[in-house]
Amino acid sequence: MTPAEMEARIVRYGDLVPCKTAFIDAHTPGSDQKENFTIIGGGVSESPDQHVHIKDTPGFNIGAAGQPPKCRNSLHSHRTAEVFFVLKGRWRFFWGRWGKAGEVTLEEGDIFNIPTGIFRGFENIGTDYGMIMAILGGDDAGGGVLWAPQVIEDAKDHGLVLGENGKLYDSKKGQKLPDGVGPMPLLADDVLARMPEPTTGEVVPRYVARYWDMMALSDRAPAPVIGPDAMLVDKPGFDVDFISHTTPVEEQAMDSHHVLMPMRGHWRLDYDGGSVVLNPGDTCAVPPGLRHSVTPSMSGEASMFRVRSNDDPAGPTWVG
């Protein structure tokens, strides 16, 4: 692989293109300052304005959310896995029909494999602009977002309507639903009644891994974070490993797609054809069969997440 070909497979943090109108709550006060990023794959954005950095998917999607302090993402659900790790800031995640079933606070480097099939939301509770990186199961990320009914109702008061085709229409811009396209129907009461309401005690021990625990477990080999025999035993359609500056990672060629996502420090990626440095917030898609190795490019703390494709289905993840 040539250096130019490899660079085309890297999305730099500083090159990320945000979309501020990605979802139905884009005009709703309290959520109207959030930014959505689609890094690998189309993700679940509802806006034609969304920029997609790398369109080809390796069996999962990679995205990100950036928000200033006190900005929140409204309650929604997915049909496939949704995994977040905190790149910058301090975040509160909450879940349930009204967002009151449970909650957890995540610090930088913590990872949360949010159970599929429950409403979830999150907000930046730090003092600066924050960023969380996301992994979504499946090539098409489950076909979209399921919103809590009150989110759709609130959005109408601020000019946004979601069509049954999954696209947003902004009445403030003179847009309206096309002929033959109705509004997205609200979830029926019987569907809402079947959605689980797990408590904090049920969710956190099984679905949250803390940064310093992963650092401790990665001293001799990559620490399995999500997957069979991992810290968070699950089959969301991909595996997640954690690599730190003390992890010996030998040169290898994997038979699956995988994505490198540095958390802290600078990493040198040596591959058959060249060498490149990856920085925190960068995303690098390594193709199957490419011989490569990763090592910290300088002394000090360094860590990264490695996401690998597998043959598992893309969800669900919640087992009550």
Automatic annotation (TrEMBL):
<dbReference type="GO" id="GO:0006355">
    <property type="term" value="P:regulation of DNA-templated transcription"/>
</dbReference>
<feature type="domain" description="AraC-type arabinose-binding/dimerisation">
    <location>
        <begin position="252"/>
        <end position="299"/>
    </location>
</feature>
<dbReference type="Pfam" id="PF07883">
    <property type="entry name" value="Cupin_2"/>
</dbReference>
<keyword id="KW-0238">DNA-binding</keyword>
<feature type="domain" description="Cupin type-2">
    <location>
        <begin position="69"/>
        <end position="132"/>
    </location>
</feature>
<dbReference type="InterPro" id="IPR013096">
    <property type="entry name" value="Cupin_2"/>
</dbReference>
<dbReference type="InterPro" id="IPR003313">
    <property type="entry name" value="AraC-bd"/>
</dbReference>
<protein>
    <submittedName>
        <fullName>Cupin</fullName>
    </submittedName>
</protein>
<dbReference type="InterPro" id="IPR011051">
    <property type="entry name" value="RmlC_Cupin_sf"/>
</dbReference>
<dbReference type="GO" id="GO:0003677">
    <property type="term" value="F:DNA binding"/>
</dbReference>
<dbReference type="Pfam" id="PF02311">
    <property type="entry name" value="AraC_binding"/>
</dbReference>
<dbReference type="InterPro" id="IPR014710">
    <property type="entry name" value="RmlC-like_jellyroll"/>
</dbReference>
